[in-house]
Design a protein that fits this description.
By secondary structure, this protein is α/β, with parallel strands linked by helices. The protein has two domains: about 5-175, NAD(P)-binding Rossmann-like Domain (Rossmann fold, 3-Layer(aba) Sandwich); about 175-295, N-(1-d-carboxylethyl)-l-norvaline Dehydrogenase, domain 2 (Orthogonal Bundle), CATH 1.10.1040.10. Helices cover about 45% and strands about 20% of the residues. The protein has helices at about 10-20, 35-40, 80-90, 105-115, 160-165, 175-195, 205-225, 225-230, 235-245, 250-255, 265-275, 280-295, and strands spanning about 5, 25-30, 45-50, 50-55, 60, 70-75, 90-100, 120-125, 130-135, 135-140, 145-150, 170. The chain has an eight-stranded mixed beta sheet, sandwiched between helices. It has a four-stranded mixed beta sheet with strand order 4-3-10-9, covered by helices on one side. Helix 5 links the parallel strand 11 (about 145-150) and strand 12. Helix 6 (about 175-195) packs across helix 10. The radius of gyration is 19 Å and the shape is globular. The two termini are about 40 Å apart. Bound molecules: nicotinamide-adenine-dinucleotide. Nicotinamide-adenine-dinucleotide binds near residues 12, 84 and 125.
Length: about 300
């Protein structure tokens, strides 16, 4: 059963390259014919990991190709996910399954609503990759992937293929809690790093601000996914800031490249959930207003 990977960005290339390297039939779905042409000229995906470099010449296509899709990895940004799934929805077979790689929350529900007959599997990843060339990806951060389907606890048969491809993973029956917890950590770190224009470690100099946000985010987590997911948030955030002190967070990297951020699916989602639950979280609201104003001042979308 072939894998289709939509989105030839950092994570899409990393997943496609690892599946193909394990000998599993894998096709990339690219945006348009120009992109397809450039991919063919490149000769495949260049995967760099440590000192190892490999070229994986897997096939590619556009969404317009008619062949049915049974296993899709949706590897675009959260704000592109709904349009991307719409572009290939007609190709999804009766028992198709879609793996959603998007960060944050909100895009998964929007995708699922577009394809109500198709099983959607949620994913939370701590792996890190970046593109060093159009179709070249550097696997920069070892991590782990949690996958799950809140609507159906039975793991899909293809998890063995992820093992075969060396993709570290575990099936989880607590995906909403995992995704909310990751979102909360992101909300405590990323917007402040953007506003202070600083590396993660420098946020330790603004720990009062971080602590205030963590207190509000813990309240939100307790209401949304329960007390267990809410515990020890500030300690975890502090540990992450120390362990990644020299790094720029993903949202600041987007801003530095003058690219759209995923704020709507992170801080935006937290603020929307708080409003829906009539939870008064003034620190989060003020942070969202400051961040939106700052993004607009740079000419970037505020959501
Ligand atoms: P990216 O911007 O590098 O790649 C996304 C790709 O999808 C782009 O090449 C874009 O052109 C393509 N795309 C968008 N719409 C398309 C369409 N309709 N048809 C075909 N291609 C389309 O993004 P990324 O870094 O790979 O991130 C993907 C998701 O994974 C994000 O939500 C991100 O937050 C999350 N994530 C990334 C990393 C990482 O290390 N890069 C780690 C964890 C989570």
């Amino acid at each position: 059963m072939p894998w289709h990977v939509l989105g030839a960005g950092s994570l899409g290339l990393l997943w496609a390259a690892r599946l193909a390297a394990a000998g599993l039939p894998t096709s990339l779905i690219l945006r348009n014919h120009d992109s397809l042409q450039r991919y063919r000229q490149a000769g495949g995906i260049q995967l760099v990991e440590g000192s190892q470099q490999r070229l994986l010449s897997l096939p590619a296509q556009t969404a317009a190709q008619p062949e049915p899709i049974q296993r899709l990895i949706l590897a675009c940004k959260a704000y592109d996910a709904e349009a991307a799934i719409a572009s290939i929805a007609a190709r999804l077979g009766d028992n198709a399954e879609v793996l959603l790689l998007q960060n944050g929350l909100g895009s998964q529900a929007a995708v699922a609503a577009r394809i109500p007959q198709t099983r959607c599997i949620l994913l939370s990843s701590t792996e890190g990759a970046f593109r060093h060339a159009s179709f070249g990806v550097t696997f920069a951060g070892q991590g782990h992937n949690w996958l799950g389907d809140p609507g159906n606890p039975v793991p899909p048969a293809w998890l063995d293929e992820l093992t075969q491809a060396g993709i570290p993973h575990a099936w989880s029956d607590a995906m909403p809690a995992r995704l909310w917890r990751k979102l909360a950590v992101n909300c405590a770190i990323n917007p402040l790093c953007v506003l202070h224009d600083c590396r993660n470690g420098e946020l330790l100099e603004h720990l009062d601000e971080v602590a205030g946000l963590c207190a509000e985010l813990s309240q939100l987590l307790a209401q949304t996914v329960g007390a267990t997911a809410a515990g020890g948030l500030l300690d975890e955030v502090r540990r992450i800031l120390q362990a990644t002190a020299g790094n720029y967070c993903s949202m600041l990297q987007d801003v530095q490249r003058r690219q759209r951020t995923e704020i709507r699916y992170l801080l935006g989602q937290a603020c929307a959930e708080a409003a829906q639950r009539q939870l008064h979280l003034p620190g989060l609201g003020a942070l969202q207003a400051r961040l939106r104003q700052y993004l607009l001042s740079l000419g970037l979308p505020a959501d």
